[in-house]
Specification:
This protein has two domains: 2-75 and 211-229, no CATH class; 78-205 and 242-268, Alpha-Beta Complex (2-enoyl-CoA Hydratase, Chain A, domain 1), CATH 3.90.226.10. By secondary structure, it is an alpha/beta fold. The N and C termini lie far apart (66 Å). Helices cover 28% and strands 27% of the residues. The chain contains eight helices and 13 strands. The longest helix is centred in the first third of the chain and has 14 residues, at 23-36.
Length: 272
């Protein structure tokens, strides 16, 4: 109870009347935080302002070890649920998607299962992540065994291993940028570290090394509680170690001002 009282005293109210949420709901959030949060010494933010995933991540990153966000349920913009694909450079398949939600993941899996090309470009620019389980399913298309990622929780570790048997590609290229985050970072890092035929083209990604679990308040439908419950890594590598611009690795192609992703990919695939 002492921990719960301490957490309750540190709750920051933003944008709503505390009575609207109700003490019972706040206490349920605090109990959930106490059981699941990796960091109990951080502020707790309550807000009813509708936010996009990007806004939530920006707010989390802007605060020192901010790990709790209670806010309105968000929806991905329509563009985040769209999957774009095409055949380019004669024998290269290009696919771009904006999140690892169920709908987009099923479509990407369907496309990968039908893909006849020798090479593939995974465009993860602006991909804000989603469910780790969905990332694991897509990684299994490319990996023949090996670690996909490790999630370190408060009292346990979950290690996701790739299954055996996968599609074979000559070259796998991942496009990444500063808005590639979370599960999208897990995907490109697991492919890059496990396979020798993977190239990264772009610049330093977001570096979201933590993941959240969500508590849905049973008696207050509009509010969810997002708690940082785990940190993730791939083969012991922290995503924040991948810099791109300064990493001396031939399989990392840094994109600077005025450079074009597709042009660099074409050079790599000998299509120019």
């Amino acid at each position: 109870m002492a921990i719960m009282r301490n957490l309750l005293q540190r709750i920051k109210i933003s944008g709503f009347d505390k009575k609207r949420i109700g003490e019972k709901n706040v206490l349920m959030c605090v109990d959930f935080i106490n059981r699941n949060s990796l960091y109990l010494d951080t502020p707790i933010v309550l807000s009813n302002r509708k936010k996009t995933v990007f806004e939530i991540n920006q707010e989390l990153k802007s605060k020192i070890r901010e790990d709790v966000y209670v806010g309105m349920k968000y929806r991905f913009q329509n563009g985040r649920e769209r999957v774009l694909h095409d055949s380019i450079f004669n024998d290269t398949f290009f696919v771009q998607w904006g999140s690892f939600q169920d709908k987009t993941t099923e479509e990407v899996k369907r496309l990968l299962s039908l893909c006849p090309s020798k090479n593939i470009i995974l465009d993860l620019r602006g991909n804000m992540g989603g469910k780790v389980e969905n990332t694991v399913e897509i990684a299994n298309f490319f990996l023949d065994g090996g670690e996909i990622c490790t999630l370190k929780y408060k009292k346990k570790e979950n290690v996701f291993q790739a299954s055996t048997g996968c599609k074979k590609f000559d070259k796998i290229i991942c496009f990444i940028d500063k808005n590639t985050m979370s599960s999208a970072e897990i995907l490109y890092l697991s492919l890059y570290l496990n396979l020798k035929n993977v190239w990264l083209i772009g610049n330093k990604s977001y570096g979201k090394y933590q993941g959240q679990v969500v508590y849905h308040l049973p008696s207050f439908r509009d509010v969810d509680c997002y708690v940082t419950a785990f940190e993730w890594s791939v083969l012991g590598v922290d995503i924040r170690e991948i810099i791109m611009e300064t990493d001396n690795d031939k399989r990392m192609i840094y994109i600077g001002e005025g450079q074009d992703y597709m042009t660099e990919a074409a050079r790599l695939l000998n299509a120019l």
